[in-house]
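Issue 218. Parser rejects a valid record. Input:
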Amino acid sequence: MKNLPYKIIVFFSFFVFLSCKTEEKKQQIDKTNTLPYFNEATFTPIWLVPNSKEVENLHKIPSFTLTNQNGKTITEKTFEDKIYVVDFFFTTCPGICPKMTKNMHVVQEEFKNDNEFLLLSHSVTPKRDSISILKDYAIENNIISGKWHLVTGVKKEIYNLGRKSYFAEEDLSQIKTEDDFLHTENFILIDKKKHIRGVYNGLNKNSIKQLIADIKILKKEI
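Output the parser choked on:
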């Protein structure tokens, strides 16, 4: 009988140990079925449990106001509870943009019937790319209205979004302003909570396949 309290203590300690191990297992991240978070321009991956308290403190895409190819005002609320992919282009681009648009179209077709997914392409020459020009570009490239937004607006806002919000530009060695042309082939994946979850080469077919696969992973997050 004298050993009873000791046995109880040992049993209780063992129970607490098992409980902690179970909780630890729950918090382990399956990196094959979860995407990392990206908090700054170096795109260093941060692995966290989705919707955890730590995630709440990460970088988010701020509010914005732009206009799409149909003359409709587009804000951050347009993407509320949506997964979306972002890029930066201009309609008269003779180089990388046509291929980027073609690859973005592949993504559009994969998720064209998915109401939780959108695409957002920002013009980096907003004065030149008027609403009517964006509309013509949309028609020419079979862009689905309401699914893929081509946007124009104030140049300073678009460039700030590209560099400070989406971290779309890879050149981190120099401080740039709106006078420095913004041109990048990167596609950026944003989750429903406005966190950055991936960056992809918009010119590379394998990278586009990975983007599509990652969107499907992201869709499974609660």
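Fixed in the parser; the record now loads. Residues 30-219 form a domain with the Glutaredoxin fold (CATH 3.40.30.10).
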